[in-house]
Write a structure and sequence with these properties.
Blueprint: H1 2-13, H2 31-41, H3 46-68, E1 73-77, H4 84-87, E2 95-100, H5 102-114, E3 123-127, H6 135-141, E4 150-154, H7 163-174, E5 180-187, H8 197-209, H9 220-230, E6 234-238, H10 240-248, E7 260-266
This protein binds S-adenosylmethionine.
S-adenosylmethionine (SAM) binds near residues 3, 81 and 157.
């Protein structure tokens, strides 16, 4: 809900300049207005909102490029209220699997029905509780074809998992025989003298209070070495400076050296 509210507010306060999502407000129903009012009252939410807009934009641009290169399956891991499946023009060329906890999916289906957003024929819901079953087992049962080239998006999930769980999922993705791309976001461990420490700590406290504490962060070089060892041959990683340069034309002062990253890694 938190990420979906940020995407909805971005459509209004920044007019979807980074990431245009015509369903972002609709899926929230009446809550969208409250989200916009809350955001207007609290400008400190803007950096996280823009990061969330950037990660979706980066993921969907990379998806379009991958489909042009032959990808035919999309797996939205930890989909939450992501709306890509319901508005993509790539649906005719893609089979789409949304993977999430059963309770979250049931809630999303109610919101979609309330907003009269139809289920695309290409979409399959894959209910999974990662505490009880594996991604491999759940995907196999849903008709996923491991021999087809596949694109995974995994947005806003990695920080909530242990390092072991993150690397094991990335290992599974890297091992799929048809070849894969994966886009995910992660954070660097905070620097000792981090000028943004107070904001980060407040966010960490909020998510922990909501029952979903942050559990992992990664040093960029070490993560790249792990990705390469797992079999990812192409790694594109945008840190704070690259994000500022690419999406904000370098405006906005000196970016922090460490912080939120968005990555695309591919075995093909
Ligand atoms: C912060 S949300 C991000 C949602 C979405 N990707 C987005 O960017 O809006 C994290 C997602 O991970 C899912 N998740 C967390 N723990 C899980 C588990 N044990 N099994 C399956 N999914 C889980 C949650 O249901 C939620 O949809």
């Amino acid at each position: 809900m938190g990420a979906a509210r940020h995407r909805a507010v971005h459509q209004v306060l920044e007019r979807g300049r980074i990431f245009s999502d015509p369903l972002a407000l609709r899926i929230l129903g009446a809550d969208a207005e409250t989200a916009v009012r809350d955001a207007e009252r609290d400008p400190s939410r803007r950096p996280l909102r823009l990061f969330i807009a950037v990660r979706s934009r980066f993921a969907e641009d990379a998806l379009a490029a991958a489909v042009a290169r032959g990808v035919r399956q999309l797996v939205v891991l930890g989909a939450g209220l992501d709306t890509c499946a319901y508005r993509t023009s790539l649906g005719e060329r893609l089979r789409i699997f949304e993977v999430d906890q059963p309770a979250t999916q049931a809630w999303k289906r109610r919101l979609l029905a309330d907003a009269e957003i139809p289920m695309p024929p290409a979409l399959t819901f894959v209910p999974v509780d990662f505490e009880r079953e594996t991604l491999a087992g759940a995907l196999a049962g849903a008709g996923f074809d491991a021999a087809q080239p596949t694109f995974f998006t995994w947005l806003g999930v990695v920080p909530y998992l242990t390092e072991q769980a993150v690397l094991s999922t990335l290992g599974f993705i890297a091992g799929l025989s048809g070849g894969t791309h994966v886009v995910f976001d992660y954070a660097n461990p905070p620097a000792e003298s981090d000028p943004h420490a107070a904001g980060r700590e407040a966010l960490a406290a909020r998510v922990a209070a909501a029952g979903e504490a942050f559990r992992s962060d990664f040093e960029t070089d070490a993560l790249h070495a792990r990705l390469a060892a797992l079999g990812f041959r192409e790694i594109e990683d945008l840190g704070p400076a690259a994000i500022l340069e690419r999406y904000f034309a370098g405006k906005g002062g000196r970016p922090p050296e460490r912080g939120g990253h968005i990555v695309r890694a591919a075995t093909i």
